[in-house]
Amino acid sequence: MSPIDPIAAATHADPYGFYAALAATTALHRDESHGMWVAASAAAVEAVLTSPSCRVRPANVPVPPALAGTAAGRIFGALVRMNDGAAHCPLKRAIADACGRIDRARAASVGSREAAALVPRTPLEAFAFVLPAHVVAALLGVPADMRPDIARWTADFAAAIGATASPDETARGIDAARHLLDAAHALLRAPADLPPDALLAALAREARHAGRVEPDIIAANAIGLLSQTYDATAGLIGNTLLAFAAHPAAGAEARTDDRALTAFIDEVQRWDPPIQNTRRFAAADATIAGTAVREGDAILVLLAAANRDPAANPDPARFDPARADRRSFTFGHGAHACPGRTLALVIAASAVRALLARGLDPATLVRPARYRRSANARIPLLATRDACP
Ligand code: HEM
């Protein structure tokens, strides 16, 4: 059955016909049940994400009320992801520069090493979450013995900042945030103990160049790299495994050729995105994509629908790893575009290689997939018909 709700679509078994119908209209449209505007076409999504009138948070709620005044709120309020204007740029540039300096071959070797260590002792349903956290922690310079705790706290923190957090999840996330801040500050206080190529050292250096020397800001944004990675990359890994089952011929090539695997995962992120939507809030009355919006209005930005707009990708429903000039909104667009795209693809490739090498047969994944409860992420709950490899 086709979804009729643009938020529930993120975790619907097949939301793509619904999205395609929405994307056929280039203007914003009003969804009264959610009290929001919805942008679905590539033109509308691009217009919202590049509009100078749009902000990532409502003006009067910089931090969700349940987190305000807590350690989790301290991190949330300092994230570039959650700020615009002076609190966003130039720190965003510093973070993008630090991420851009991660050597791809080194990230791949850290990914393979962490995956090989984790895959035999981690249940399939946990592996897709734990691996990305371990890889980013390792790249930041977190010592190996601390990585399991960092992954656990990242899980709790990420759940607490999600739109669907329960009171229990919020409480656990606040506790985890305290631990994450303590750990990040301890590492920042002893820079000589960090590996010379540590991402945390690069982040601190770039932030200093950008005039942001406050340790709390650097610590919060290092934690932000972990939490931004966590759910999204788990979704990319899971959706890639499902795509292997759905497209066995392309999957067979990707199994044997690293470039084909990267192309396969790059098409998955467009075709079945792990992050399906984001939100913006109008900071002033404005006309966006031809629609008059009022100060304070919320806009749901359907990244996954824009990917299926034929104006962005010809024959958009076709899964084609060789697609030329792929246009994808999965990693955002404009000032807040994701600086972790390359790293996410590298981590997902490490995960898939390790699982296939361990004997996972994607054809045995239980389908139709069920997805983890979320208002914006599409993360399949991985289970196999056979015993877990
Ligand atoms: C499949 C994996 C990932 C997906 C789909 C993804 C998606 C996104 C999206 C859609 C945004 C923009 C949100 C908006 O504009 O409202 C974003 C921002 C961001 N992402 Fe990612 N991301 C992924 C992995 C990563 C990784 C691995 C890192 C870094 C280690 C990262 C770091 C960030 C940061 C720091 C921002 C905030 C940028 C800003 O606000 O200027 N992400 N991501």
Which CATH class is shown? Mainly Alpha
CATH fold type: Cytochrome p450
Structural class estimated from helices and strands: alpha+beta
CATH architecture group name: Orthogonal Bundle
Question: How are the strands ordered across the major sheet?
Answer: 1-2-7-4-3
Supply Rg.
20 Å
Helix content: 40-55%
CATH H-level homologous superfamily name: Cytochrome P450
Question: What is the β-strand count?
Answer: 7
Count of DSSP-assigned helices: 14
Biggest sheet record = 5 strands, mixed
- N-to-C span: 33 Å
The topology string of helices and strands comes to HEEHEHHHHHHHHHHEEEEHH
Question: What is the 3D form?
Answer: globular
Short account of what is shown:
This protein has 389 residues and is of the alpha+beta class. The chain has a single domain, classed as Cytochrome p450 (Orthogonal Bundle), CATH 1.10.630.
Q: What does this molecule look like?
A:
- The structure is a single chain.
- With 389 residues, the protein is α+β, with helices and mostly antiparallel strands.
- It has one domain (8-364): Cytochrome P450 (Cytochrome p450, Orthogonal Bundle).
- The chain contains 14 helices and seven strands.
- The protein has helices at 16-23, 42-49, 71-78, 91-100, 104-118, 124-140, 147-161, 167-189, 199-209, 215-246, 248-256, 258-271, 303-307, 341-357, and strands at 29-31, 36-39, 54-55, 278-282, 286-288, 291-293, 298-301.
- A five-stranded mixed sheet has the order 1-2-7-4-3.
- The protein starts with 15 loop residues before the first helix and ends in a 32-residue tail after the last helix.
- The model has no long low-confidence stretch (mean pLDDT 95).
- Bound molecules: protoporphyrin IX containing FE.
- Protoporphyrin IX containing FE (HEM) is lined by residues 56, 80-81, 92, 95, 99, 136, 224-225, 228-229, 232-233, 236, 274-275, 278, 330-332, 336, 338-340, 343-344.
